[in-house]
Amino acid sequence: MNTIRLTIAYDGTAYIGWQRQAQGASIQQLIEGALAQILGETVVLHSSGRTDSGVHALGMVAHFRTERNLPLAAYREGVNRLLPRDVAVQEALEAPADFHARFSARGKWYRYALYQGVVCSPLLDRTAWHLRGALDWTAMEEGARLFVGTHDFAAFRSSGCEAKGTVREIYAVDLVREGELLYINVRGSGFLRNMVRVMVGTLVEIGMGKRPAGDIGRLLEGGDRCQAGRTAPSRGLCLMEVWY
Q1: Which reaction does it catalyse (predicted)?
Q2: What is the count of structural domains for the chain?
Q3: Is 52 annotated as catalytic?
C-alpha cells in the first residue's frame, strides 16, 4: 500500500469549502474524482484541515492510500489536467506509511488580506476584505501580541464548531503592510472553526477604535463569542502552509 501526499492550491470562491458535502462542489470532491479517473479506483483524501466556503489555499496538504504504483507525475500533471483552473496539485510525494495529513501536522500558517484602497479593486475582490478608512496599526499590533501563547480560544470560534477542546497555541501573529494591502499572518499549532476570521474581525474593530487593544486578554479569559468581533469575510483568508 502506497501513501501519497499532495500539496494543493485553490481559489475557494466558487466552492462550498474543502469537505465533500451532499450538495455543492467541494475541493475534496473534485480531486477525489480526478484521482479516481487516474487510478481506476475510488480513493478517500484525508486533509490537514477543512477550509470553509470562499476560503483559499496555497498549501493545503492531503493524503490518500492506493495499491497502484503510478509515477508521481500522474498525481500532479495527470490530475491537474482533469481539474478546473482554480484548483491545482502543486506537489505529489511518497510519504511514510504512518503519515497522516491531519494528525502528523505540527502547525499551520494562515494569512488574512485587508485592502485599504479608496476604490474597490476588481483584481483583489476575491482575495481581500476591502476596508475604507484608516486603521490604527499600532493598536492592532498591540492586540495581536496578546494572542500569542497557549490560550482558551472559545470566544474566537463559530457556533458550529464541533471541536471538543478550545485550547490552542499561537506561535506568532504578524502584521505586514504592502502598499494598500495589509496582511495578518497567524501561525499556530491548530485552529478552531472560523478562529482566524474572528481574530481578524476583532483586530479590525481595535484598528477602528471600537474597542481597546487590551480587550483581547479579556475575551481570552471570558470565552464569550458574543463579546468578540465580527467574523471577517471568508474571501480574505488563505491557508499558506502546513508544517510536519
Answers
A1: uridine(38/39/40) in tRNA = pseudouridine(38/39/40) in tRNA
A2: 2
A3: yes
